[in-house]
UniProtKB/TrEMBL annotation:
GO terms for molecular function: oxidoreductase activity. It comes from the Bacteria. This is NADPH-dependent FMN reductase-like domain-containing protein. It comes from Streptomyces griseus subsp. griseus (strain JCM 4626 / CBS 651.72 / NBRC 13350 / KCC S-0626 / ISP 5235). Residues 7-147 form the NADPH-dependent FMN reductase-like domain. Gene3D superfamilies: 3.40.50.360. It holds the Pfam family FMN_red.
């Protein structure tokens, strides 16, 4: 089993990122289930706007798309900005939209049989709303969602604390991260053994 984490922070490397910090924790839990993984910070790549598989002229999405299609589990990690997923996350969803028309020889999108999960961080409420937005987009383009497919941390409203700056991971975040990894891995293994029917 392989997992890919697309970290949708607005900041390029090597700037610190709470989204990357939480994604790293999720990937560590995947490793406990013998799932190998890779973390990619999307802002480090020139992903062009659009809804095509390849927008040309140096577009970095085709290379990232290969990683998505090679993975059994896709994790989207995003901060909350103005109550919404980051603009980088939205761009990833828009590019994934092309998968709706890219099908295998049985008429199924290549994302069928793949599992998705979400990690959300922010200094305001809204993790449920953001995960719901991302869940809908991922499901629309063919990904499956296991129970408990999100882990999140939100700081106290009107404060400037960051998840990456906490002295220790809160128990609630640690337990939801463990559940996300266990359930997503379980579903991915089931789908690997028994694929969805042809369209």
């Amino acid at each position: 089993m392989r997992a890919l984490a697309l970290v949708c922070t607005l900041n390029s490397s090597p700037a610190p990122s709470s989204s990357q910090h939480l994604a790293t924790q999720v990937m560590a839990e995947f490793a406990r289930h013998d799932v190998q993984g890779e973390i990619v910070r999307v802002a480090d790549h020139d992903v062009r706007p659009g809804t095509g598989v390849n927008m040309g002229d140096g577009d970095a999405w085709p290379a990232l798309r290969k990683k998505v299609l090679a993975a059994d589990i896709l994790l989207i990690a995003t901060p909350i900005w103005l109550g919404h997923p980051s603009s980088v996350c939205q761009r990833v969803l828009e590019r994934l939209n092309a998968e709706s028309s890219e099908t295998d020889d049985q008429g199924r999108p290549h994302t069928y049989g793949k599992v998705a999960a979400v990690a959300v961080v922010g200094n305001e409420d809204g993790a449920h709303k953001v995960s719901a937005d991302v869940f809908q987009g991922l499901n629309d383009v063919g990904f499956s969602l296991a129970p408990g497919a999100v882990t999140y941390w939100v700081g106290e409203a009107m404060h400037g604390s960051d998840y990456q700056d906490l002295d220790e991971t809160p128990d609630a975040v640690a337990s939801t991260t463990k559940a996300l990894a266990a359930n997503a891995t379980h579903l991915a293994r089931l789908l690997a053994d028994s694929s969805y029917p042809a369209a």
